[in-house]
Amino acid sequence: MIYLDYSANTPVDEAVLQRFCEVERNCPGNANSRHAAGTAAKAAIDAATQSIARSLNVQPAEIIYTSGASEANNFAIKSIARLERHHGRHIIFTPLEHSSVSGSLTALQEQGYEIDLVDIRQDGTVDLAHLKELLRPDTILVAVTAVDSELGVVQPVAEIAEMLKACPHCHFHVDATQAVGKLPVSFAGIDTMSLTAHKFYGLNGIGVLVKRRGLALEPLIHGGESTTIYRSGTPTVALACSLALALEKAVSELPARVEHIRALNARLRTGLAQYPKVRINSPDTAVPQILNLSVQNVKGTVFQRELDAQGVCVSVKSACSSDGLPSRAVFAVSHDRRNALSSWRISLSHLTTEQEITDFMQAFDACYNALTQ
């Protein structure tokens, strides 16, 4: 099997898995309990929190553990909306957002909030002039994904943060799920930021919401003690410790990982350019881990099934929104519905080998010839 769907899920790093098992065996106590086992568990989760904070260059008090990025996005967006509802009900987001962001906003729209989509440019980045036009005194939130999961577009997060300084009641939420482990991430100028371990070789079931100090979010989950007042429930110590190690490795090993992946991406682009009916949808400025393409007049779902039969795993749209509809992200960039229906994604890893790229191109050639006759 050739696995090229790393943006949907990454395999767990062996050292990260070992850390999880070690902590799970050695820390059986509840971190909220006032005895020796509880004290040991609390010490372990506190150390993990400090490690995560160092990796992200934030304060430990700004870390909130969640079950993953979907919960973190829901928590941040809905809580900010409730917090600022007396100042306004206007929210801005992009057409490239994950379904946990767009779904949260749909729920808020049904409660009377006004939602606007900001235009994106041909390269997929936010049209900053249009964003400035959309901002109003009653705008309370701008939500932007740092890296789009389908195209790999890198958004100008720092420029947006700078623009929003002039809006005292407008918060800035960044979904960094696809950014962590792909490029350096900064929390500067951001109010809330989400991430999840399973996108950077950690375990499923653990994520983080980074919350600016002084921002008093309203909890989604109430009742019971925890590591924070913002999310009740017994903390999973082993998961927190495993995330801390996965993040530490993602940050420290980033340059070497990216160098390898960039070479693989360049090889794919060169090889795919030989096929006249192939259209590369990811801009040249996209992260090298993600390459989105379309084969003219062949639905993405059809090409994916053919590749799957050849032992190659790729994806059509985000794994959380594979519903048979055209890719919203690709349509937003190309303005071509048929192209969006034909799109699919290759996502690469530092674990991807040159031989796997060779084998993929052979499988692609067979599928292309069979489906474009």
UniProtKB/TrEMBL annotation:
Keywords from the UniProt entry: Aminotransferase, Iron, Iron-sulfur, Metal-binding, Pyridoxal phosphate, Transferase
Entry's Gene Ontology molecular function annotations: cysteine desulfurase activity; iron-sulfur cluster binding; metal ion binding; transaminase activity
InterPro entries, per the entry: Aminotrans_V_dom, Cysteine_dSase, PyrdxlP-dep_Trfase, PyrdxlP-dep_Trfase_major, PyrdxlP-dep_Trfase_small
Signal peptide bounds: none
Catalysis: reaction(s): (sulfur carrier)-H + L-cysteine = (sulfur carrier)-SH + L-alanine
Presence of keyword Iron: yes
Family label: Belongs to the class-V pyridoxal-phosphate-dependent aminotransferase family. NifS/IscS subfamily.
Protein name: Aminotransferase, class V
Organism ancestry: Bacteria, Bacillati, Bacillota, Clostridia, Eubacteriales
